[in-house]
Structures are given as C-alpha cells and as structure tokens.
Batch of 2 targets.
Target 1
Amino acid sequence: MTKYYISDLSKVGLPAASTDDSNHNTFDVIVVGGGTAGCALAARLSEDPSISVLLLEAGGSGTSLLFSRIPSAYSKLFKNPKHVFQFYTEPQTDAQNEKKFWPRALFRPKAKMLGGCSAINAQMAQYGAPGDFDEWAKIIGDDAWNWANFSGSFKKFEKYTASTSYPDVDISVKGSSGPVEVGYNSYYSESSKDFVESCVKKGIPMNHDFNTTKGPNGVNRISMWSSCLALSGTDSNSVRPFTVTYINKDVSRVSTESAYLTPDVLARSNLKVVINASVTKVLFHKSGDGETKAVGVEFAKDRNGKVWRAKANEEVVLCGGAIHSPQVSYPIKLTVNRSPFNTLQLLLLSGVGASAHLKEHKIPVVHDLPGVGQNLVDHPVVDFWFKDKSKLAPSFMVPSGPMDLVKTIKWVALYLLKNGAGILGTNWGEAASFVRSDDPQLFPRDEYPIQVAKDSTSGPTSPDLEIFITTLAYKKHGAWTWGFPTFSIHACLLRPLSRGAVTLKSDSPWEHPAMDPKYLTDRDDVARLVKGGRFCLNLARTEPISSRIDHTDAEGLDGNTYLKSDEELEKIVRDRVQTLYHPTSTCRMAPLAEGGVVDSHLRVYGIKGLRVCDASIFPEIVSGHTAGASIAVGEKGADILKADLRPNK
Ligand SMILES: Cc1cc2nc3c(=O)[nH]c(=O)nc-3n(C[C@H](O)[C@H](O)[C@H](O)COP(=O)(O)OP(=O)(O)OC[C@H]3O[C@@H](n4cnc5c(N)ncnc54)[C@H](O)[C@@H]3O)c2cc1C
C-alpha cells in the first residue's frame, strides 16, 4: 500500500517562506491526521470528485507493520517512537501521586500512523450505549446526533457477515456493506469462556450483540443496555465468543487505513495522502471586516525538517485525536496580510484557546476560546491478577528466555501459514460485560456498602462499569508478566466524573502537551471502581472460573484480595488505576457557553473554515469503547462537509 502514498512533501507543498503563488499546493479540504476518524473522513469526502482533499499524516503506513496486522501483537509497537507517540500524564495526585503514563514509560500507545489508534487498539467493537448519543444530541441541541439518526453512521461503516455460528445476532440491524469488517477473532481462550459462564451465574444476562437499540433484554434483572457478551449456552462445547472485533476473514486487523484507503480510493485524482507529514501550524487570514479564516497549514517531516505549506480553499479539518487536535489548535500563526499566500508574512505567532493560557506561552491570541483542551476525560481501569492453574495462558508472548522466543516464532509461522490460526489471533480482550453499579441484584448493599452519590450514566439503560477479562495478566501495559500462566479481570469506569485538560508546555509543536486527566478526583469515581473491583474479586470466586484460579495469595496476585476491606480496596484502586486509552472531549461539541469548541457541524466557534472531526469532539465520553464512535464521527463529518460545501449536489 505504501506505494500509493506521497512521502516527498514538495509534491504537495511549497516551502513555508516562499512567495511562490502557484497552485500545486492548493486543495479544497486539508485533513490533518490520517487516524481513525481522519481516514474515514478523507475517503468519504473524496467520493465527490469536485472536492480535492489533502490528507496529512504524521506517521507512516500501519498496514505495512506485521505487529499491527496480527491481532495479539499491537503492544509490541508501543515502545517504538517511530510508530507511537510517547506520552506521560502529569503526576496524578489522587492516584498515589504516581506519575501515571499515558501511555506510560516504555509503553506508549498513542498511534502515529495511518489508521491512528485503530491500528494499535484491542479491536473491541462495542460502540457505547444509545443513551450516550441521545445525550450528545441534547447537549449540542441537534437531533442529527441522537441514536435514531447517528446510528446510521455506524451502520454505514460496518460490514458484518452473517454466520450460522451466531444465530442470535439480528443481522437486520447490522451494516453489511460498509468498508469496516467486523466479526469474530479465531481464538477464544478457556479462561474467557469460564469468565462468561461465571458472569451469567452472577446474574448478568446474555447479550448477543452489544450494538443494538434494544434496552435491558428479557427477564433481565439489571437495568442496562448492554449486559453481557456471552455464550450461547453453559455447555462449554457450545461456547462461542460474542465480542465483535475489527477483523477480516484472514484474522488480520481492520484499521481505518485498511478499510478506507483501498487502492481504488487512493487512485482518485482528487485525493492525496501524504505520510511522515506533521502539521505544525494552522494558517489564518484575517479579512478587512475582522473575520478570521483558516487558509492552510504548515507541515514538516520532523523537528529539523524543511517546513512546507499547503493552501485550503475551503476547510482545514483537524483529526489529530483528543491530545493533538487541541494542541494543533493552540499555536497557530495569524497572517494579517490580505493575500496570505502572496507574500505570506506570518507576523504573529498566535492561537485559539484560553487567552490567559496562550499569553502564558507568549502566543498572541487569534481567538479566545476557553474550551480548547479542557474537559479531558478518559476511562480509568483497575486490573486484578490471578494465577491460572492451567498451562494455557500465553506467557511466552512476553518472552523471558530463548524458549519463549522459539514458541513465539512457531505461533507466528502458524498464524501466517494457516490463515490466522492459533493463539496470535487473540485480541486479548475476548469477553466483557457491561453493568450498572446501582443494580441492586448485582450489587446488593450488604456486599457492596460503599456509597455512590450521583448517577453518572447517560440514561436508565446505559451502563457505568465494564468488567472484562484478558487472557494474560500483565503490568506496564503488557510489557511485563509473571513467568507462569495468569489472567486478569478488569474493572473499567465507563462514566467518570473527573475532568482534566490538555494544555501547552511550550509553543513548540514538537513538544508533547501536558496531559492531566485528573484520575479519581471525583469521589464517586473511586467508589464506583471499588464496587467494580469487588465485583471482579467476587466473580473470581464464582464457578467455573473459581476452579481455574490458584487462590493462595502468592506473588502479588489477587487470589485472596477479596478478604480486604473497602478501605484497603480503595488503596489498590488508587495504586493501580491506569488508562484504557480512551481520551476524549478536548474540543467538545457543545454550546459555546458550556465550554464548547465546535458546533453541531463540527465548526470551530468564531473561525471560518476550521473544523475538528475525531474523538476530541465527543460531548461526553461514551459508555464503551471509543473507536466505533470515532469512525462514525468521521463518517458523519464527511456527510456534513459534503452537504455544507456542495449544497446543490
Ligand atoms: C492501546 C489502545 C487500545 C485501545 N483499544 C480499543 C478497543 O479495543 N476498542 C475501541 O473501540 N477503542 C480502543 N481504543 C481507543 C480508540 O482506538 C481511539 O479512541 C480512537 O481510535 C481515536 O480515534 P481518533 O481519530 O480520535 O484519533 P487517532 O486514531 O489517534 O488519530 C489521530 C491521528 O492523527 C495523527 N496526528 C496527530 N497529530 C498530527 C499532526 N500534527 N500532523 C499530522 N498528523 C497528526 C496521528 O499520527 C494519528 O494517526 C484503544 C486505544 C489504544 C491506544
């Protein structure tokens, strides 16, 4: 695929300082960031041959990387700065004041490649709850974003192929002709099967498809939308995984690069996809009547590379993700020249954001927009580790000696030669359940005495906790494991109330911004995670998974942690809390008066020709995994732009 991409920046840009006014660097729309949403947006927009599109991506191709394609191997990329941005959060004062990494040291999963995080994520295709999107529509005051309407964008990207193995999935509600294949991974571990059976025993009803409109199903004793992705029966021979993943028939990851940037799309004369092109600035033009318009961007290969510029006739769309989109918006140059690309005198380093913050970094203010970078929210997760009595856990995948490497090579060969066969086909997060922490059946007061003050869900049928299993227990985001079989059960807080921010550390686009998610600053977040943690521990003592676990309290594992008090559990929560890699909402789609950055057409308030289209626009974080909604935002963004730019088509 790499052959279709442009890596010579002079092919689409002019030197930043040049006074050349030729048009080879002029496009109708410039998309900044070829990630999860960006690839979808650029591909859909360029379906209209009258719209010329330039897509600038900081990294290279994700599909060319074997570790991205093999479902289980993505974490092997985390250490490579060429493919993954290396971020740290600010110290988290409510999480034992530890420096929490986002991604953490030696382990940095914020993708820098085409496909973005869809190229390195765990592929779990659960999109959130219908109530989330009804809440979005209410916040922004536009029904186009409610579930009834926005669900069309999910269906549009989806390609689900019906299978007799999954007769309970209602295929009439699934997309069947979109570019993004969703299906089932080839590998499903024994521990995940046991997890699902134990969830059912605990009272979580089965849910054969997380992504439908239906609310609590059947005799469901819990009030939630998505209950448990589960098995078709309790007989383990009939167990089937129900975790839908972004996967194709060859058991290869489906990213938005592989799905949308196909050879026929890349052959379009009105689409240019450029790799290794980091946008360093958005360029603005201020007209005589005081209107500020985005008119182009500057970009470079790296910090020391030559700086180029391209012109946008109509729109610049930021798709850099929830960390980079606000960062790119901050340090922008304002051209006050009336013909910006004739003499292009970039007179003022300027910015869009809170004026006080911009002034702190001596960045003159283009537009005072206090919401930029604010409202950072992420899903915090706490892991519980168990020793698996079986010999099945794939500990060799975090090699501790030559024998492990030999095993890995054997499995890679099997995967490559036998159509994705074997354990490398696991996406790690094979099974999950979604629950409400206020469900009295699942969380009876005598077992779960800790008090939660506020309902943070998006509606009565939406969950606030996810309980999921990974086939291997690990620390350091997968870089370390015990030298014997293990697995983890995790409690993830789906609707945190704590809010943080992305702010600048300097005016340099090459310096990472400060990310402060402020984990656990809201007391309810701690209480919910204590409840979720205790649920994980109780689940671990429920058959059949209980029999799989060595319950001695050895080697820092959690076989006996259920004996701990809530106070002790709270300490564990604060010690272990980590990111589930779902930052959102830093350029929120919300009314200006409520800290919004974009309106319902994704237009940045107060600036013409500048939009944002990625997970940063989520008005609130979804109660689930964030890739699906990011792709759907890309789809919807394209529909909106096409209609706004070519209203008569
Ligand atoms: C390890 C991991 C596991 C995850 N697991 C799941 C999961 O199982 N299921 C799920 O639904 N979600 C999962 N997620 C979350 C999900 O993948 C993300 O929320 C989603 O992909 C974000 O999409 P985005 O378009 O907002 O940003 P991204 O996909 O991050 O795209 C941003 C793109 O912009 C580029 N870029 C940034 N700055 C610039 C610049 N200045 N110039 C040019 N290009 C730039 C980046 O290189 C990147 O390609 C996971 C994420 C990670 C990291």
Target 2
Amino acid sequence: MIIDRLYEEVEKKGIVCVGLDTHLDYIPKKLKDEYQDVDRIMFEFNKRIIDNTLDIVPIYKLQIAYYEAYGIKGLMAYKRTLEYIKSAGSLSIGDIKRGDISSTAEMYGKAHFEGDFEADFITLNPYMGFDTITPYLKYLERRDKGIFVLLRTSNPGAKDIQYLKAGPQSNYIYYHIGDRLKELGQNYIGSCGYSLIGAVVGGTHIDEGEEIRNKYKNMFFLIPGYGRQGGKGKDVVIYLNKRNGGIVNSSRGIITSYKKYEDGDKNFEKYARLAVLDMREDILNGERI
Ligand SMILES: O=c1ccn([C@@H]2O[C@H](COP(=O)(O)O)[C@@H](O)[C@H]2O)c(=O)[nH]1
C-alpha cells in the first residue's frame, strides 16, 4: 500500500515534506537566464532541489496553483516534475484541494490519479460534503493512491467555519469531519497502522493538537504551516507519533532559503538541503521524550 511506502520513507529519511511552490520570483536570476522557457526554468529549479534532497526527504508536495498561474507551460513543468519524482523513486502529493459534486470529482480523479498529472496522493476539500470524496475511493481500493483531506487548516481564517460548533455534543465542525474520515479510513489501513485516508492539520494552532493526534490514531497527517506561517518545531511535533505518522511541509522556507546567502543564487539547491536539515533538527528538538 502507498501509505506503507510513505511510512517506510519517513522511517528512512525523516518527516520533512518539501513544498515545490515554484513561483518565478523564487527562482534565481542565473537559472532564469540559463533556460529561457518558463517550463524548463521551473522544472530545472525543481529538479535540482529534488536531486539535492532525495536522501533526506520522503515526499514532495506540489501546490498546483503555482503551475496553473503560468498557463500551459506551468502545467508542463508540473507534469514533468511529478514524472521526475516518480522516476527518482520518490513520492508526490498533488496539492489540488478539490471538492465538487461527484460527476465532476470523477473527472478530477481521472486527471490527478491517472492522467498527465498523476500523483501518489492528492489533497481534497470536504467542506461541500462527503459525496465529494466518494468518487476517489475506487483509487484507494487499488491501494496505490491516497488522499489527504482538509481537517483543520493552517490559515487564520480556519476559525471562521472549521471552529463552529454543531451536533448534539456541540463539537467543532472539524471533529465531525475527522470522525467521518476515521470511520471511512478503517477500510484502508496499511500494515504500518495508518490509513490511505489522511488529514491536513495546520501546524499553526496547537491548542487541540494532542487531542487530534489521540483521537485519530490511524490517520497520517500532512502538516503545513511550519516556517513562513509561524509554525515552530515544538508546535508541529505534537501531531507526530514516534517520529512518524505525519509529514511536515515547508515550501517558501525551503525553496527560497538561498536568498539569505551571498552566494545563494549559485547554490540554491545546497541551501534548500541545509534548510531541510535545520528544519528536521528543529522538529526533533521540540520532541518530548
Ligand atoms: O492548511 C493548509 C493547507 C495547505 N497549505 C499549503 O501548504 C503550503 C504552505 O506553504 P509555506 O510557504 O510553507 O507557507 C502551501 O502550498 C499551501 O497552499 C497550507 O499552507 N495550509
């Protein structure tokens, strides 16, 4: 199962997920001068970061908006990067956050689990209802794909809807989502103990972190919010379990880290690697033994 592969990769390489949110402004001028075409520039930037972090990163996340923003060429870079990650023996998350009626969701499934944009995992938004999730389950039956469903997100506005209270016990809405996902996820648990149905939990709100980890023991977490959004090692570590059970994403914090150094433009991939190692250490230092 793909979740067992992810678990094993985390065991070997650690918990840092590199976010390839490849804005052209984040790419050194030197590289832009070298390759004139947007698709080649974006792909080369990604490739060099991947090549330099492959042994310390279990999975890469591509936020599709950064590629869509550059039109067809951007999407070519998205496709080539996903293919490259696969050919390098690593894993990918297509951060697409889809959520639509089932007939449309069928087509999203085809596009992102089968077609040119095929990824190992995708992110989904359940806030339009659970019928928006069902069409993806047929891919989970095959055991080689997984989903991360938004539970409690990292942005300040998460409180606007996710923290409303509902139901007879007046629980936060995100707990209603979590309980349904937990139930659904029971059919897809791998030998590592985690389900192909994982959840996105922001590493920026720590108040209910421990409760979320304890309540959803079989759920693997995708944890964004570290670094640029303010999440620290000690904030995100509460969502992990024995240094596994989750991956902590950082995008800008890693791929633009070279900008702090005088020779950064020439060595951006080296500084991306350093940022991954620093982040891993910061998270493990936050661990309560
Ligand atoms: O709750 C969420 C869900 C997804 N994201 C995504 O993660 C990265 C974060 O980027 P940084 O540069 O490390 O802040 C980005 O792709 C978001 O779309 C999130 O931040 N929060």
